[in-house]
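Supplementary Note 3. Input sequence used for the single-chain structure prediction.
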Amino acid sequence: MEKKNIGTVAAIAVMMMLVLSSALVQNPQGNASASVLDEPDVPVDVSSPAEGDVYQVGTEILVEWDTSQIDGDQVLIVLYDDGELDYSLFVFEDNTGSYLWDTEYYFSMSDSLQIKVENAYSSINFGYSGIFSVMDIPQHPVEVYLPAEGDEIPIPSKMTVTWNADDIASNYVDIYLYWQAFGEDDVVEYTPNTGIYEFNTPWYWDTGEKYKIKVMDSHDHERFGFSGKFSFISHPLPDDIVVIAPCGGERYRPYEGVDIQWLSPEGMDNFCIDLYQDGRFLLNIFNDYETWGNDVGFFTYYIPYDHQGGENYQIKVSDQNDPSIYNHSGMFSILGSGEEGSLEDAVPLDYDTPTEGSIEWGGRVYYAFDVDETALVTVCIETDEDNPYFSMAAKVLDSDGGVISMHEYGYFWNEFMYVEDMAVCLFPGTYFIELSTWDDGNYEICITSHTPNKLLEAPVMPAVGESWGLMYEPDVREMFIDLITEIEAEIPPEEDFEFIYEIDANHKAYGLVEVTQNDGTFTYIDFEFAQSFSMELDATITGEFPVAGTYVDTDYDEIPKETRTVKAYIDMDFHLHIEGALKLRNSDMALMKVDVSAEVLFD
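The predicted structure, written as discrete structure tokens, is reproduced below.
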């Protein structure tokens, strides 16, 4: 066998010994601040990293050693954290004297690290670097108080994270869990910056040491901080039922799952789960729920969509065999108490006057406004910046409640939330705005109206600020007269057929063009076009129709007939809104650039 193959086998053997052994704890020459590590029989000088070096996580760290002190062509490079093996770095490399360690996926964030360089063929020929640090160093540090260094937190249990809220610049924070080389897990994103956050540690999280919590500004990712290192431990068996989740303060939406967790004494594995409000029984969620000898119980209750919203809800978990043994969860709330408004309750809106309002889950709010002359009406809604997940839908309705236009307003990742306009062409009359939501929150609504200052042909060279428009309201019956004539022609000429139809249709279009800039070389024009079309067709044909069946080589007159009435009903709504900008060359009015966006609603 060649020497290199022998070396490979030896290297694998060494790696297996390291993985299976937890006794690799000794102190290098004179470093009294770390745990005691093995001293080599044949030392190797590891010059980098040096004692006291500090590195930003994600950078490359140069590992250097004296190649002449290693009798072999391969080395094993491993990382130690406070004297214990850390598998973030565990590689075999050629004995070149240097190696670049990329710390992009290093998550321990420790200030007591050392690197060991060992002869891959001899476990007594090795050396250690100085003690150094790899940290995620923020530009703006955030002080995290809890969990504290050395805390032991049971799994499952209620866990509390606290931090200095004054260190956060925005109103929201993201919280992450770190564990050695295994990366990060999201605990919560975009939670209010109150300085405290409580949550339930899931039963499936692993126990272990060297966990950390990271608290970061949701809008400034260079503003963050870490907790001290803490441990997750197994929860001791209680003497009674302990309901861990919900822990209290949660807000659930209909259709959302409520995760229920509890601990029970040994030998208790059959439970009853109930929902309470204000201390009163509401409904039974589950009977005879078995945990099959497991001391941790877990169940998810999905709230019905039509559940009545409210506060002071609790989960009661009791022993199915002995109902006197029970306990309650913390209190939580369920959204869903929004009131259904109506057109009759619509609140009048004035143009160019922002109006504040609030809405609850499942509720609807209505506003009314009048249009005196044909115009492009814009509806602007700004959602509540204190509730980043607040979203809602808006509809513009005609006087009978029919939908003219609709839009959804969602949350957006900035401090001012999501603001968007909805423009629609409206003719004189009364209109309504319907707001609905899937959450509780506040908003601000405002409407504006834009009417052209000219209803003439566009001038050859329009001046800045000039606008002109076009109104179009055709006779819909005339538009479809050919189709109606064609249908009538298909009706058999017999006198016993009767064709009755009624058409109720509306077609309106409106265009607006405005010159916004003229720099002497180019003219810039904004344009908007809105069109709405709705039609209802109700038709009946009564007469003698062939009886259903199969007829071969039979004249129409010989087919048996029966009197029937055939009905047809069509209800169609189409709405189009187009807006954009043009860039024209003044010398010849050539089109140099066009930007267009469109919104279509078809029902």
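Residues 46 and 129 are 5 Å apart (CA to CA). Residues 140-234 form a domain with the Immunoglobulin-like fold (CATH 2.60.40.770).
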